[in-house]
Amino acid sequence: MGRVARGRVLYIAAEGGGSFVNRVAALDTPEFFVLTVPLTLTGKDSQAAPLSEMMQHLAATGGAGFDLIVIDTLARVMGGGDENTAPDIADLFRNLDLIRRATGAHVMLIHHSGKDAGRGARGHSSLRAAIDTEIELTRDNFGTITADLSKQRDGPTGYRFAYRLLQVELGRDQDGDPVTTCLVEPTEPAEAGRAVVSDAARKALAALDKMIAASGEVIRRPQYPGGASVPLGAWIDACVSGEDVSSAKSDDDRRRTVHKCKDKLCEAALILVRDDRVWRVEQ
User: Fold this and answer.
1) pLDDT tens by residue, the chain, 283 residues
2) CA distances (Å), 74 to each of 84, 89, 109, 172, in order?
3) Are both 1 and 99 inside the same structural domain?
4) For the chain, which end, N or C, has fewer CB atoms within 10 Å of the first or last residue's CB respectively?
5) Measured on CA atoms in the order 224, 230, 232, 233, is the torsion positive or negative?
6) Domain span including residue 2
7) In DSSP terms, which residues pair with 166 in a beta bridge?
Protein backbone atom coordinates (compact mmCIF):
# COMPACT_ATOMS: atom_id res chain seq x y z
CA MET A 1 0.00 0.00 0.00
CA GLY A 2 2.98 2.30 -0.22
CA ARG A 3 5.71 3.62 2.05
CA VAL A 4 4.98 4.32 5.71
CA ALA A 5 6.97 6.62 7.97
CA ARG A 6 7.39 5.85 11.66
CA GLY A 7 5.67 8.41 13.88
CA ARG A 8 4.25 9.18 17.32
CA VAL A 9 0.64 8.16 17.91
CA LEU A 10 -1.90 9.53 20.38
CA TYR A 11 -4.84 7.17 20.84
CA ILE A 12 -7.87 8.80 22.45
CA ALA A 13 -9.73 5.84 23.93
CA ALA A 14 -13.05 7.50 24.66
CA GLU A 15 -14.74 4.07 24.49
CA GLY A 16 -13.43 1.06 26.43
CA GLY A 17 -10.22 2.78 27.45
CA GLY A 18 -9.47 0.49 30.40
CA SER A 19 -8.12 -2.31 28.20
CA PHE A 20 -5.65 -0.17 26.26
CA VAL A 21 -2.94 -0.26 28.91
CA ASN A 22 -2.49 -3.98 28.25
CA ARG A 23 -2.51 -3.47 24.49
CA VAL A 24 0.31 -0.93 24.68
CA ALA A 25 2.27 -3.17 27.07
CA ALA A 26 2.36 -5.90 24.41
CA LEU A 27 4.02 -3.64 21.83
CA ASP A 28 7.78 -3.46 21.29
CA THR A 29 9.14 0.00 22.22
CA PRO A 30 6.17 1.90 20.79
CA GLU A 31 5.85 5.65 20.35
CA PHE A 32 2.22 5.16 21.29
CA PHE A 33 0.39 7.19 23.91
CA VAL A 34 -3.13 6.59 25.21
CA LEU A 35 -5.58 9.14 26.61
CA THR A 36 -8.40 7.36 28.43
CA VAL A 37 -10.82 10.15 29.28
CA PRO A 38 -14.32 11.11 28.15
CA LEU A 39 -14.12 13.75 25.45
CA THR A 40 -16.57 16.06 23.68
CA LEU A 41 -15.79 17.49 20.27
CA THR A 42 -19.09 19.16 19.39
CA GLY A 43 -21.17 22.07 20.62
CA LYS A 44 -20.39 24.76 23.17
CA ASP A 45 -18.73 22.16 25.42
CA SER A 46 -16.21 21.11 22.77
CA GLN A 47 -12.78 20.33 24.19
CA ALA A 48 -11.00 20.57 20.85
CA ALA A 49 -9.22 23.82 21.75
CA PRO A 50 -7.80 22.72 25.15
CA LEU A 51 -6.87 19.33 23.66
CA SER A 52 -4.94 21.09 20.90
CA GLU A 53 -3.20 23.33 23.42
CA MET A 54 -2.22 20.32 25.52
CA MET A 55 -0.69 18.55 22.51
CA GLN A 56 1.17 21.70 21.45
CA HIS A 57 2.58 21.93 25.00
CA LEU A 58 3.65 18.27 24.95
CA ALA A 59 5.36 18.80 21.60
CA ALA A 60 7.20 21.87 22.90
CA THR A 61 8.36 20.25 26.15
CA GLY A 62 8.90 16.71 24.87
CA GLY A 63 10.76 17.56 21.71
CA ALA A 64 8.27 16.01 19.26
CA GLY A 65 4.63 16.29 18.32
CA PHE A 66 2.15 13.62 17.33
CA ASP A 67 1.93 12.38 13.76
CA LEU A 68 -1.32 10.44 14.13
CA ILE A 69 -4.27 11.08 16.45
CA VAL A 70 -6.80 8.24 16.67
CA ILE A 71 -10.23 9.00 18.14
CA ASP A 72 -12.18 5.94 19.31
CA THR A 73 -15.10 6.27 18.69
CA LEU A 74 -16.94 8.99 16.77
CA ALA A 75 -20.13 8.34 18.74
CA ARG A 76 -18.40 8.84 22.10
CA VAL A 77 -17.03 12.30 21.22
CA MET A 78 -20.28 13.65 19.78
CA GLY A 79 -21.37 14.91 23.20
CA GLY A 80 -24.95 16.13 22.83
CA GLY A 81 -24.66 16.08 19.04
CA ASP A 82 -26.44 13.67 16.74
CA GLU A 83 -24.40 11.70 14.19
CA ASN A 84 -27.49 11.50 11.98
CA THR A 85 -27.80 15.25 11.39
CA ALA A 86 -25.71 17.29 8.94
CA PRO A 87 -25.17 20.35 11.22
CA ASP A 88 -23.77 18.23 14.05
CA ILE A 89 -21.46 16.29 11.72
CA ALA A 90 -20.28 19.61 10.26
CA ASP A 91 -19.60 20.89 13.79
CA LEU A 92 -17.59 17.77 14.60
CA PHE A 93 -15.41 18.21 11.53
CA ARG A 94 -14.82 21.89 12.29
CA ASN A 95 -13.37 20.82 15.63
CA LEU A 96 -11.33 18.01 14.06
CA ASP A 97 -9.91 20.53 11.59
CA LEU A 98 -8.97 22.76 14.53
CA ILE A 99 -6.99 19.86 16.06
CA ARG A 100 -5.39 18.99 12.72
CA ARG A 101 -4.29 22.56 12.00
CA ALA A 102 -2.95 23.07 15.53
CA THR A 103 -0.94 19.84 15.67
CA GLY A 104 -0.14 19.03 12.04
CA ALA A 105 -1.21 15.45 12.77
CA HIS A 106 -3.38 13.15 10.71
CA VAL A 107 -6.70 12.58 12.52
CA MET A 108 -8.28 9.14 12.30
CA LEU A 109 -11.84 8.41 13.47
CA ILE A 110 -13.01 4.95 14.54
CA HIS A 111 -16.66 4.51 13.62
CA HIS A 112 -19.18 1.67 13.47
CA SER A 113 -21.28 0.47 10.57
CA GLY A 114 -25.04 0.37 10.89
CA LYS A 115 -27.26 -2.69 11.21
CA ASP A 116 -26.91 -3.20 7.48
CA ALA A 117 -23.12 -3.40 7.12
CA GLY A 118 -23.45 -3.29 3.34
CA ARG A 119 -24.60 0.34 3.57
CA GLY A 120 -21.34 1.38 5.23
CA ALA A 121 -20.85 3.64 8.25
CA ARG A 122 -23.92 4.69 10.17
CA GLY A 123 -24.89 8.34 10.48
CA HIS A 124 -25.53 11.19 8.08
CA SER A 125 -24.28 10.88 4.49
CA SER A 126 -22.23 14.07 4.93
CA LEU A 127 -19.86 12.08 7.16
CA ARG A 128 -18.47 10.03 4.28
CA ALA A 129 -18.35 13.08 2.06
CA ALA A 130 -16.15 14.91 4.59
CA ILE A 131 -13.47 12.25 5.03
CA ASP A 132 -10.40 11.85 2.82
CA THR A 133 -9.79 8.14 3.39
CA GLU A 134 -12.10 5.34 4.48
CA ILE A 135 -10.83 1.91 5.57
CA GLU A 136 -13.54 -0.70 6.17
CA LEU A 137 -12.91 -3.69 8.46
CA THR A 138 -14.77 -6.99 8.10
CA ARG A 139 -14.31 -10.28 9.96
CA ASP A 140 -15.03 -13.72 8.49
CA ASN A 141 -16.03 -16.94 10.26
CA PHE A 142 -12.39 -18.02 10.48
CA GLY A 143 -11.28 -15.02 12.53
CA THR A 144 -9.53 -13.27 9.65
CA ILE A 145 -10.07 -9.50 9.58
CA THR A 146 -9.77 -7.72 6.26
CA ALA A 147 -9.09 -4.00 5.94
CA ASP A 148 -10.31 -2.63 2.59
CA LEU A 149 -9.48 0.85 1.33
CA SER A 150 -12.99 1.82 0.25
CA LYS A 151 -12.45 5.56 -0.31
CA GLN A 152 -9.40 7.64 -1.16
CA ARG A 153 -9.98 11.25 -2.16
CA ASP A 154 -6.79 11.73 -4.15
CA GLY A 155 -5.75 8.21 -5.07
CA PRO A 156 -6.84 4.70 -6.05
CA THR A 157 -8.95 2.41 -3.88
CA GLY A 158 -9.07 -1.37 -3.68
CA TYR A 159 -6.00 -2.02 -1.52
CA ARG A 160 -6.47 -4.79 1.03
CA PHE A 161 -4.70 -5.92 4.20
CA ALA A 162 -5.63 -9.08 6.11
CA TYR A 163 -4.73 -9.95 9.69
CA ARG A 164 -5.69 -12.02 12.69
CA LEU A 165 -5.78 -11.04 16.36
CA LEU A 166 -3.10 -13.04 18.12
CA GLN A 167 -3.73 -13.55 21.83
CA VAL A 168 -0.64 -13.10 23.98
CA GLU A 169 -0.12 -13.47 27.71
CA LEU A 170 1.39 -10.55 29.63
CA GLY A 171 1.64 -12.21 33.02
CA ARG A 172 -0.57 -13.22 35.94
CA ASP A 173 -2.93 -11.21 38.14
CA GLN A 174 -3.19 -11.36 41.92
CA ASP A 175 -5.31 -14.51 41.68
CA GLY A 176 -2.84 -16.26 39.43
CA ASP A 177 -5.07 -16.00 36.36
CA PRO A 178 -3.46 -15.09 33.03
CA VAL A 179 -3.60 -11.46 31.87
CA THR A 180 -3.98 -11.44 28.10
CA THR A 181 -4.31 -9.01 25.24
CA CYS A 182 -4.06 -9.15 21.43
CA LEU A 183 -1.51 -8.27 18.79
CA VAL A 184 -2.09 -7.90 15.06
CA GLU A 185 -0.67 -10.83 13.08
CA PRO A 186 -0.59 -10.19 9.30
CA THR A 187 -1.95 -13.08 7.28
CA GLU A 188 -3.14 -13.92 3.81
CA PRO A 189 -6.53 -12.62 2.62
CA ALA A 190 -9.61 -14.21 4.13
CA GLU A 191 -9.81 -16.90 1.45
CA ALA A 192 -6.65 -18.48 2.86
CA GLY A 193 -8.55 -19.58 5.97
CA ARG A 194 -10.67 -21.83 3.75
CA ALA A 195 -7.73 -23.36 1.89
CA VAL A 196 -7.94 -27.10 1.33
CA VAL A 197 -4.90 -28.96 2.66
CA SER A 198 -3.67 -32.34 1.52
CA ASP A 199 -4.04 -35.61 3.36
CA ALA A 200 -0.32 -35.47 4.19
CA ALA A 201 -0.72 -31.99 5.69
CA ARG A 202 -3.65 -33.17 7.81
CA LYS A 203 -1.51 -36.04 9.12
CA ALA A 204 1.31 -33.61 9.92
CA LEU A 205 -1.21 -31.46 11.78
CA ALA A 206 -2.42 -34.49 13.74
CA ALA A 207 1.18 -35.24 14.70
CA LEU A 208 1.57 -31.67 15.93
CA ASP A 209 -1.58 -31.95 18.04
CA LYS A 210 -0.18 -35.10 19.70
CA MET A 211 3.19 -33.46 20.39
CA ILE A 212 1.61 -30.37 21.91
CA ALA A 213 -0.64 -32.51 24.11
CA ALA A 214 2.36 -34.58 25.27
CA SER A 215 5.13 -32.01 25.62
CA GLY A 216 3.83 -28.58 24.61
CA GLU A 217 5.30 -25.62 26.48
CA VAL A 218 3.75 -22.22 27.15
CA ILE A 219 6.38 -19.50 26.74
CA ARG A 220 5.25 -16.17 28.13
CA ARG A 221 6.55 -13.45 25.86
CA PRO A 222 4.52 -10.50 24.52
CA GLN A 223 5.03 -11.58 20.92
CA TYR A 224 3.92 -15.18 21.51
CA PRO A 225 0.40 -16.66 21.64
CA GLY A 226 -0.87 -17.78 25.01
CA GLY A 227 -1.11 -21.45 24.04
CA ALA A 228 1.44 -24.24 24.10
CA SER A 229 4.02 -24.78 21.36
CA VAL A 230 6.80 -27.21 20.46
CA PRO A 231 10.14 -26.71 18.71
CA LEU A 232 9.65 -26.55 14.96
CA GLY A 233 12.60 -28.85 14.31
CA ALA A 234 11.28 -31.52 16.68
CA TRP A 235 7.92 -31.57 14.89
CA ILE A 236 9.58 -31.73 11.47
CA ASP A 237 11.85 -34.58 12.62
CA ALA A 238 8.91 -36.51 14.07
CA CYS A 239 7.00 -36.24 10.78
CA VAL A 240 10.07 -37.27 8.79
CA SER A 241 10.84 -40.28 10.95
CA GLY A 242 7.28 -41.63 10.72
CA GLU A 243 5.58 -42.93 7.62
CA ASP A 244 2.17 -41.27 8.01
CA VAL A 245 3.07 -37.99 6.31
CA SER A 246 5.27 -39.41 3.56
CA SER A 247 6.08 -42.94 2.45
CA ALA A 248 9.10 -41.87 0.37
CA LYS A 249 12.17 -44.04 0.85
CA SER A 250 14.78 -41.34 1.45
CA ASP A 251 14.87 -38.94 4.40
CA ASP A 252 15.51 -36.04 2.03
CA ASP A 253 12.33 -36.74 0.05
CA ARG A 254 10.28 -37.14 3.23
CA ARG A 255 11.72 -33.91 4.63
CA ARG A 256 10.82 -31.99 1.48
CA THR A 257 7.26 -33.31 1.72
CA VAL A 258 7.01 -32.32 5.39
CA HIS A 259 8.26 -28.79 4.69
CA LYS A 260 5.68 -28.43 1.92
CA CYS A 261 3.01 -29.51 4.41
CA LYS A 262 4.29 -26.96 6.93
CA ASP A 263 4.09 -24.17 4.33
CA LYS A 264 0.54 -25.15 3.33
CA LEU A 265 -0.61 -25.30 6.94
CA CYS A 266 0.83 -21.79 7.50
CA GLU A 267 -0.98 -20.49 4.41
CA ALA A 268 -4.22 -22.05 5.65
CA ALA A 269 -3.73 -20.30 9.02
CA LEU A 270 -3.83 -23.67 10.82
CA ILE A 271 -0.40 -23.27 12.43
CA LEU A 272 1.80 -20.35 13.47
CA VAL A 273 5.58 -20.55 13.17
CA ARG A 274 7.70 -18.01 15.02
CA ASP A 275 11.29 -18.09 16.31
CA ASP A 276 11.69 -21.80 15.42
CA ARG A 277 8.61 -22.81 17.41
CA VAL A 278 5.20 -23.90 16.13
CA TRP A 279 1.72 -23.31 17.55
CA ARG A 280 -1.61 -24.84 16.57
CA VAL A 281 -4.12 -22.17 15.52
CA GLU A 282 -7.63 -22.96 16.68
CA GLN A 283 -10.33 -22.32 14.08
Assistant:
1) 456 778 889 999 888 666 777 888 887 766 888 888 889 999 999 999 999 999 898 888 877 889 999 999 899 999 999 999 999 999 999 999 999 999 999 999 999 887 666 566 788 888 888 899 999 998 876 678 889 888 888 777 778 888 888 888 888 888 888 888 888 888 876 444 455 678 899 999 999 999 999 999 988 776 677 788 999 999 999 999 887 888 888 889 989 999 999 998 988 878 888 889 999 886 5
2) 12, 10, 6, 34
3) yes
4) N
5) positive
6) 1-131
7) 183
Separation of alpha carbons 37 and 66, rounded Å: 18
Of the residues 114, 131, 148, the one at which a domain ends: 131
For residue 72, count CB atoms less than 10 angstroms from its CB and return exposed for 0-12, middle for 13-18, buried for 19 or more.
Answer: buried
**Is 63 domain-assigned?**
yes
CATH number where 33 lies: 3.40.50.300
Range list of β-strands (E), 153-239: 160-172, 178-186, 229-231
Nearest-angstrom CA–CA distance, 255 and 246: 9
Task: Give which of 67, 77, 64 is closest to 13, Cα–Cα.
Answer: 77
| Inside any domain, residue 232 | yes
**Residue 85 domain-assigned (yes or no):** yes
The answer to whether 226 and 178 have CB atoms below 8 angstroms apart is yes
| DSSP-assigned letters across all residues of 24-78 | HHTSSS--EEEE-S----SSTT--HHHHHHHHHHHHHHHS---SEEEEE-TGGG-
CA distance 41 to 100: 13
CATH number, domain of 263, equals 1.10.10
Domain count for the chain: 2
* DSSP letter (8 states) at residue 245: S
> What is the CA 75 to chain-centroid distance, rounded?
21
Which amino acid makes up residue 126?
S
Report yes or no on 185 lying in a domain. Answer: no
